[in-house]
Amino acid sequence: MSHKVAILGASGYTGAELVRLISTHPDMEIAALTGDRKAGMGMGEVFPFLRHLDLPPLCRIEEVDFATIDLAFCALPHATSQNVIKALPSDLKVIDLSADFRLRDGAVYRKWYGKEHDAPELQAVAVYGLTEFYRDEIRAARLVAGTGCNAATGQYALRPLISAGVIDLDEIIINLITGVSGAGRSLKENLLHAELSEGTNAYAIGGTHRHLAEFDQEFSLLAGRKVEVQFTPHLAPMNRGILGNVYVQGDGRQVYDTLAAAYAGEPFIQMLPFGAAPSTHDVRGSNYVHVGVASDRRPGRAQVFVALDNLTKGSSGQALQNANLMLGIEETTGLRLAPLFP
Amino acid sequence: MSHKVAILGASGYTGAELVRLISTHPDMEIAALTGDRKAGMGMGEVFPFLRHLDLPPLCRIEEVDFATIDLAFCALPHATSQNVIKALPSDLKVIDLSADFRLRDGAVYRKWYGKEHDAPELQAVAVYGLTEFYRDEIRAARLVAGTGCNAATGQYALRPLISAGVIDLDEIIINLITGVSGAGRSLKENLLHAELSEGTNAYAIGGTHRHLAEFDQEFSLLAGRKVEVQFTPHLAPMNRGILGNVYVQGDGRQVYDTLAAAYAGEPFIQMLPFGAAPSTHDVRGSNYVHVGVASDRRPGRAQVFVALDNLTKGSSGQALQNANLMLGIEETTGLRLAPLFP
Amino acid sequence: MSHKVAILGASGYTGAELVRLISTHPDMEIAALTGDRKAGMGMGEVFPFLRHLDLPPLCRIEEVDFATIDLAFCALPHATSQNVIKALPSDLKVIDLSADFRLRDGAVYRKWYGKEHDAPELQAVAVYGLTEFYRDEIRAARLVAGTGCNAATGQYALRPLISAGVIDLDEIIINLITGVSGAGRSLKENLLHAELSEGTNAYAIGGTHRHLAEFDQEFSLLAGRKVEVQFTPHLAPMNRGILGNVYVQGDGRQVYDTLAAAYAGEPFIQMLPFGAAPSTHDVRGSNYVHVGVASDRRPGRAQVFVALDNLTKGSSGQALQNANLMLGIEETTGLRLAPLFP
Amino acid sequence: MSHKVAILGASGYTGAELVRLISTHPDMEIAALTGDRKAGMGMGEVFPFLRHLDLPPLCRIEEVDFATIDLAFCALPHATSQNVIKALPSDLKVIDLSADFRLRDGAVYRKWYGKEHDAPELQAVAVYGLTEFYRDEIRAARLVAGTGCNAATGQYALRPLISAGVIDLDEIIINLITGVSGAGRSLKENLLHAELSEGTNAYAIGGTHRHLAEFDQEFSLLAGRKVEVQFTPHLAPMNRGILGNVYVQGDGRQVYDTLAAAYAGEPFIQMLPFGAAPSTHDVRGSNYVHVGVASDRRPGRAQVFVALDNLTKGSSGQALQNANLMLGIEETTGLRLAPLFP
User: Which of A168, A178, A201, A230 to probe by mutation at the D interface, max D CB count within 10 Å?
Assistant: First the structure.
């Protein structure tokens, strides 16, 4: 049976990635695509790589007949989603890919996003969408909040370790290298090929990146105490991919074994052999996550490496995995595509 | 029903691309993978992007039980394939991805490849694998010769035009820009990132590229007279993709209409609107071909643009499409994957 | 003796490239930098790569005391330059890097740029800035019009051949691959790293690129008859560099000898051996031009390859070379910097 | 007065970079170039980007008349240099760019490089070539050992902090992102464009990178106690550049002020404003180093960022700066070239 889905905000990268993935999903059909500024255009005009598909044209949200829709993906910009979702039929299943419903606490939202939340009642019920750790809640949810792509990366490295109590909670450093599609289709000088290719830089330095709020919320909840990590992302000249290099204080073998046990049955998480480093090249365009662990030469220090594709497992692939759960479809359906290499 | 296939020479890019594509093919199963120098290793070691798959380890060709194999893909280097294929069971269906069986004439083979062919009897019966133009022959073939990736690109631009007699056969220029994976996994200084990125150059200039032999053979056959084109490939810093810009003398609109008519029912060939230029970005990782046509400001001159992915439609995707035909599977099975963008 | 120069419009790539080059020029001093939208900022803020230099801050054009300036480089956008230059002191030496003064004929300007020229009296006296071919006029000029970067590339391949009458004037095809900095610092989706890297496409197809106007003007003047070429640029994922592949009908050896003779004494033009193809990698960041020639397998057909850096020899380096001539400085001063490789 | 220099091992990237830099040095002349495997070839054949220069052809070391040479740069592979340098005239000034003379202790050398040193007597007298910290010793040295490029990066971040005692010596993490030219012109699969572009990975993880030996030696010497840092390099798809992100425990402002004071008079080291992050884009091709500092949100934790070009300041530019000192030339001569951007 085919489930009908809508993608709100289909003219950005995460929207297009959803279309790409759903285009070969056997049990899902795209029934509506919205894009306010590009309403009336075909997806093949906005994204020529999708021109072979038979898709509904982009329309305005008001034009969608939600009565015929089983689930809506909301791929709108941060701070826009909350009002749009508030106005949707209250029984419609929704997956939001923005940051709007990731934080459960209104005050924390205000602190990091600089505004009052417009739908606090939804904020309270939204389920955090990190599939492997919220699977049951997601299955039963009406509204799921997709995680930040950096936030997902750091959590894959750390959640089992925090739960198991095998690392020092005060000495965690999350060092990330991220691809540029994480910044979306925004027109900024530093995202131009001429300025981005052939170089790298850190950004949002000094503990200012908003995904810290997700780390704080989730790690503190897991640990039952306040946990604050140090987190620095770097921008590298690659379109897709995040490489997390997470510095922890703990025993390397114990770290490895804890992660291996936690991810033993997970269809998308691959543990590398101990001492091996993953590469973002090897997960590009896929929903797979590669995890590696190494001990430092000094006992009691280790590193966890996580490679994933920010647009797939870090965003739209995660959303589709969650949609499968919410719609009663087998969780991995449509998501087994192999990475693209080279 | 699942068909069992073997991939001979699976440790190169075209072999790995076959594995990627077949991994989500519903009716095909990889029963054997060979790689002489890497025999004994797992594919996930040779290509970590495939580590999530449950695959047979690489073995030596002699170790394969061909009695259980329905079709073998031969992804070995040029000049190696011919002897390997000669030694295979004579009723085994084979698709060769090398250049060994593209040329039907022994003398022409000798001229371009500098050696006598070791299996002239097979050379005579091999079917040229450009699916859209040899569909019936491929369906009935025992041995299919995959085309050169550049050769495919040029032929998609030109075959219908030559057949229809709408261009001057003596004034054809095929200008190509190709991605580096076309050179395979060869260790050469000019293929290093440090030497290839951020620049471009022509190569095999002056009418020396071996794919000219394919153009000569196919175009002369179509035209019923000798046709010689001018052909220059350029190497650009991209891993996948070929952009053909084919200069012809003829009426632009007639050129467009001829191509549009020829490709009207083709599942993988997309005609762009008249005057639009395709981009290799829009076909990356897919089996789709985008075709555009523009008239020059001077009447009687036009350009045909063709974008395809050299590893997919130009090589392994083409091979899989042909395998579907040879095995009686619906032609597009496993090949509808959308391109990867960005 | 140090000559004082101003750079008007210093916040774009050509302005910054002028600063880069002049920073090690022994006889030139940057006395003023303008940038209307960024007035008040330091160049090191706008372009951190220049932060080691002691430069005047960006100011508004009105704030420059042109009485103290020996020569002004005008690196403003097309159609903006003409009014700015008209308002400058009439005895100030000026080099314009925009398209505004490249075309001598008002009607031709109107046709290609869609507006009436605002300074036709200057249009008539401006000298076309292709140094090697207008050296004496440039030395004596008050206003020099920098050439288009694509236009320079095509002319280096063709001017000596047209002058010598060794090629068919009706069968010239200029095929170019250009780096993205040629598009300037403009914020457009297709110039984003995510959309530009790892792929290529033709643009301004069908005889619509404005540099055709320069080819028409210059080649017709040289030939003493109307010459119209076919010209298609392609965008490749590289920041600097243009590779011209110019298809001509003529004898390859004669073509080579004609070019070699024409460029024998030129300090910046390097002839490669016959049959060798230049690469943009080998001229990056420099004022050098590499020229190669190959014969096709069919007699009477040849190709000329030209590689140069669009921002240096194609724009700011050319401008500095011309400034040297206009100020009586040895022509190559400050321009002998070797290319950057890798 | 022009000093005559030889470059031994000129066919690699550091050798070619030396030629690039020296080509516009007013007081230095390249009198000999050696390259055993390419002896007899011109540098313009080996590196076409140098074809405009009038250089001696590559020869074998035995063919060089060292009596006419004032200083030799030795750009040979690790473990090769020591025997070559041992055989040179004992009064010849030498700068070695390999790792052979960086470590003063024979046992430490043996541990990290797995062999006995062949010239321990030279090992004892070689001066470590980090110019800003060994200026006087370098001026007087006969043999200078160029530092590792990663080692230089980490030391620019840390030396003043260790000397001043403002950070916790047991909690130092050096996280680096490096460009691929640091690996030299080696033919390895992971350095191919097809495998390196568009992705990133850590390497030499777990405290195994040989530059750790330099950190250990230098930091322990400075601190007067054993100091062991954690160090992980990542490979990013860029040809030049290293970005160091060094995590320290100390007061951010004090860290900044300490570095600013230490580098106040340094011609090549640029302190960014507090809280700003440098980018490798802004130092490409130059001898400049950009240094930034940020405090974490948690008091007592800070980060130091260092951007430099591995081939210039990290290797050949450093060598030339040292050569200037050794030959009595003004230290910055020939090294003021601005970075190349974009």
Answer: A201
Look at residues B183, B178, C151, B189 and name the one whose alpha carbon lies nearest to residue D48: B189
Task: Kindly list the residues from chain C whose CB atom is less than 8 angstroms away from the CB atom of residue D198.
Answer: 197-198
Chains in contact with C via at least 3 Cβ–Cβ pairs below 8 Å: A, B, D
Is A197 close to C192, i.e. CB distance below 8 A? Answer: no
Asked if the model's pLDDT at residue A36 lies above 90, the reply is: no
Cα distance between residue D212 and residue D156, in whole Å: 15
- Which residue in D283, D279, D254, D258 sits closest to D269, CA to CA? D283
D290–C23 C-beta distance less than 8 A: no
Most distant pair of Cα atoms in chain C: their distance = 61
Contact D23 C285 (CB under 8 A): no
Which tens digits make up the pLDDT trace of A187-240? Answer: 999 999 999 999 999 999 999 999 999 999 999 999 999 999 999 999 999 999
For chain A, domains (ranges, CATH) are 3-146+313-327 (3.40.50.720), 149-309 (3.30.360.10)
Judge whether C240 and B161 are in contact, CB under 8 Å.
no
- Identify which of A175, A200, A294 has the shortest CB distance to residue D205: A294
CB atoms near residue A273 (< 10 Å): 9
Q: How confident is the model at residue C233 (pLDDT cuts 50, 70, 90)?
A: very high
Three-class secondary structure of residue A151 per DSSP: helix
Indicate the pTM of the whole model: 0.97
- CB-nearest partner of C191 from A13, A192, A198: A192
CB contact under 8 A, C50 and D338: yes
Alpha carbon distance, N-terminus to C-terminus of chain D: 36
Each residue of B238-287: pLDDT tens digit? 999 999 999 999 999 999 999 999 999 999 999 999 999 999 999 999 99
Residue of C nearest to A188 (CA): C187
Neighbour order of strands in the sheet with D71-74: D58-59, D28-34, D3-8, D71-74, D93-96, D143-145, D127-128
Among chain C residues, the shortest Cα distance to A241 is held by C194
What residues pair up with A303 in beta bridges, in sequence order? A247, A294
Identify all chain B residues contacting A49, using CB atoms and an 8 Å cutoff: 281-284, 286, 338-341
A210, A234, A288: best to mutate for the D interface, most D CBs within 10 A: A234
At residue B36 the predicted structure's pLDDT band, cuts being 50, 70 and 90, is confident
Phi and psi (nearest 5°) for D110?
Answer: -60, -40
Using alpha carbons, select from B245, D129, D205 the residue that is nearest to residue A175. Answer: D205
Strand order from edge to edge, sheet including A3-8: A58-59, A28-34, A3-8, A71-74, A93-96, A143-145, A127-128
Distance between A72 CA and the closest CA of chain C, angstroms: 26
pLDDT in tens, D290-300: 999 999 999 99
**3-state SS, residue B118:** coil
Dist CA A84 CA C180 (whole Å)? 38
Of C189, C198, C239, the CB nearest to A194: C239
Question: Pairing mode, if any, of strands D289-295 and D269-271?
Answer: parallel
Residue keyed to tokens 């750009």: D75
D13 reaches B (C-beta below 8 A): yes
Q: Which residues of C42-64 are buried (b: 16+ CB within 10 A; e: fewer)?
A: bbbebbbbbbbbebbbbbebeeb
Between CA A278 and CA A283, with CA A282 as vertex, the angle to 5 degrees is 100
Residues 6+ apart with CB under 8 A from A339: A282, A283, A284, A285, A286, A288, A309, B20, B49
DSSP for residue A192: B
Chain C residues inside the 8 Å CB shell of B279: 199-201
- Confidence tier at C36 by pLDDT (50, 70, 90): confident
Quote the CA–CA distance of B20 and A342 in Å, as a whole number.
Answer: 11
